[in-house]
Design goal:
binds manganese (II) ion; binds glyoxylic acid; 12 helices; 16 strands; 34% helix; alpha+beta
Length: 411
């Protein structure tokens, strides 16, 4: 029996349902933000399944969780596959979790089929991919690829001022695993993910052979003014932080409106303080997330942002903190070809496509040969509790994944 034939669609679907209960929301999504008790519960769930199958489990200093199936050559660098288990605050059941469960299903399928590979194969759940609670996103894979970034990440705070190192300690206390050193040698990496857009469904294809990820930047813009009485303070005397924020936001939407609608520009979080209806806001901040396949466009927009804040902030003080930046990523041609070839051999329809969303694979691609496999999601809806995917497509993508991992692990 081949690894692909041993992929068990029902088991994979059931595991998604089991995980969806951890942080499950009334609308059918999940709220399992990074390093929360729900994240710890998901870690314990995955580790429990892994131990029941006799796989090794360990973590690293940023909390990435690894599951290892041994190869015949214990000294050979492993092939790695996975994604993330943290979610948006109103996230779906498949974003990230699919890649982790597909990798785990691949290990189980190989085990069921009695297939030995030369290299070990490991499943991984990277810490804090979403970056909705702690900045930046794709943090676990970033630190794995650049261990020198660990110290800075541990000092990051969430929106309530909680330090990442404290949240991480709590998580690892609730979901303990043996600790290994950061950033060990990896032969290659393949990540499965739902597409999070509509193209596969529109074109009736089962598999997206992912060729690249567009570049992205993330900022926090803060405006500091002066609190004052809403009923008595004339306009000329106000230093209204929210008023400055709206001027800047409007100007940014304007410059971000490209004619061909390629640029992705989002203001996703706004906070105003003290948040009282009858006090002129003394402080406000907002986040900017922008993406484009051309790094030059992002650089130009960075310049626009600095200019617009400088002119739009007064009489308030405006500051810009860049909290994340990733140039466009091209995946490895060998891995891309291998994914396409195995998809074809399994008789599945496919198309090449770049990714609009970020993934941990963008960090690991700078570390070892890397590729990605996309499967369709219903109406392209993602970062939404209504996110959905079909058991059949999830299993199909996993069959491709097993074949690719097996080929890489026998090189
Ligand atoms: C992750 O979901 C991202 O693309 O920001
Ligand atoms: Mn994701
Ligand atoms: Mn996401």
């Amino acid at each position: 029996m081949s690894g692909a034939k041993s992929v068990n669609e029902q088991r994979l679907w059931r595991r998604h349902a089991d995980m969806a209960r951890l942080g499950g929301t009334p609308r059918g999504g999940v709220n399992r933000q990074a390093l929360s008790p729900e994240d710890a519960a998901a870690r314990n769930q995955l580790a429990g399944w892994a131990k029941a199958r006799g796989f090794g489990v360990f973590t690293d200093p940023i909390g990435n969780l690894f599951v290892r199936r041994e190869g015949t050559d214990a000294a050979a660098a492993p092939v790695l596959s996975g994604s993330h288990m943290d979610s948006q605050p109103t996230g779906g059941r498949f974003d990230g979790m699919y890649g982790v469960l597909a990798a785990f299903e691949a290990l189980e399928a190989l085990e069921d089929a009695g297939i030995r590979t030369r290299r070990p194969i490991m499943a991984v759940a990277w810490t804090n991919e979403e970056g909705s609670r702690f900045q930046p996103g794709a943090m676990g894979s970033l630190v794995f690829a650049h261990p020198d970034r660990l110290a800075g990440m541990l000092e990051q705070k969430d929106w309530n001022g909680m330090l990442l190192k404290d949240a991480l300690a709590e998580t690892l206390n609730s979901a303990p695993a043996p600790m290994r050193a950061l950033g060990f040698a990896v032969d290659s990496y393949v990540e499965a993910h739902i597409e999070q857009g509509p193209r596969l469904e529109l074109e009736a294809k089962t598999v997206g052979v992912v060729t690249a990820i567009q570049g992205s930047r993330r900022y926090i813009v803060t405006l500091e003014g002066e609190e004052a009485h809403a009923g008595t303070t004339p306009r000329a005397a106000r230093k209204d932080a929210f008023s400055a924020l709206t001027r800047i936001a409007e100007a940014m939407y304007e410059v971000a409106s490209d004619a061909d609608d390629t640029l992705r520009f989002t203001i996703g979080r706004v906070e105003v303080s003290p948040g009282s209806p009858n006090t002129v806001p003394g402080k406000a901040f907002f986040t900017i997330d922008m993406r484009h396949p051309d790094e030059g466009v992002l650089q130009k927009l960075d310049g626009d942002l600095h200019r617009i804040v400088e002119t739009g902030a007064p009489p308030c003080r405006g500051t810009i903190e860049r909290v994340g930046a990733m140039p466009p990523t091209d995946f490895d041609p060998f891995v891309i070809d291998l994914v396409r070839e195995r998809t074809e051999a399994l008789g599945l329809s496919h198309m090449d496509m770049p990714s609009g969303a970020n993934h941990d694979a963008m960090n690991i691609a700078r570390h070892c040969p890397t590729g990605m496999i996309f499967v369709p999601c219903e109406r392209g809806i993602s970062h939404n509790e209504l996110e959905n995917a079909s058991p059949r497509d999830l299993a199909a993508g996993t069959r491709v994944l097993v074949e690719v991992l097996e080929a890489l692990a026998n090189r």
